[in-house]
Design goal:
Length: 86
């Protein structure tokens, strides 16, 4: 019997606010086929550096990315993934 598609919970939807719409669109498609939880939304450069130092992320050099609108530094395009512990 096919299962219904998954959906983001309230917290995951709130954490996606401000994230680049293209990445949100990809994640919205992904959640239709597998269980996905957003554990953190936008990150500052300081927060990303902190997570990198702790080994909680492997994304390096993301501060080199620039916003197409403002030309400023942005983390709107970066995500980390992990396997569910279920």
């Amino acid at each position: 019997m096919p299962r219904p598609p998954y959906r983001f919970g309230r917290k995951s939807r709130e954490r996606l606010k401000g994230v680049d719409s293209r990445l949100v669109n990809v994640l919205n498609e992904l959640v239709k086929i597998m269980d996905v939880t957003i554990i953190e939304g936008l990150r500052s450069a300081d927060r990303q550096a902190e997570l990198l130092e702790k080994g909680a992320t492997k994304v390096k050099g993301w501060t080199k990315l620039t916003s197409p609108i403002t030309g400023g530094l942005t983390g709107r395009y970066i995500y980390d993934k992990s396997k569910s512990k279920k």
